[in-house]
Amino acid sequence: MDYLAIVVALVVAIAIHLLSRAKKRRPANLPPGSLGLPVIGQSLGLLRAMRGADGGNRWVQDRIDRYGPVSKLSLFGTPTVLLAGPAANKFLFFSSALSTRQPRSVQRILGENSILDLHGADHRRVRGALLEFLRPDMLKMYVGGIDAEVRRHVEENWAGRGTVTVLPLMKRLTFDIISALLFGLERGAVRDALAGDFAHMMEGMWAIPVNLPFTAFSRSLKASGRARRVLARITREKKAGRCQPDHGKAPRNSDLITCLLGLTDGHGEQLLSDKEIVDNAMVALIAGHDTSSILMTFMVRHLANDDATLAAMVQEHEEIAMNKGDGEALTWEDLSKMKFTWRVAQEILRIVPPIFGNFRRALEDVEFDGYLIPKGWQVFWTANVTHMDASIFHEPAKFDPSRFENQAASAAPPCSFVAFGGGPRICPGIEFSRIETLVTMHHLVRQFRWKLCSKKNTFVRDPMPSPLRGLPIQIERRTSPPP
Question: Taking the domain 2-477, which CATH number applies?
Answer without folding.
Answer: 1.10.630.10
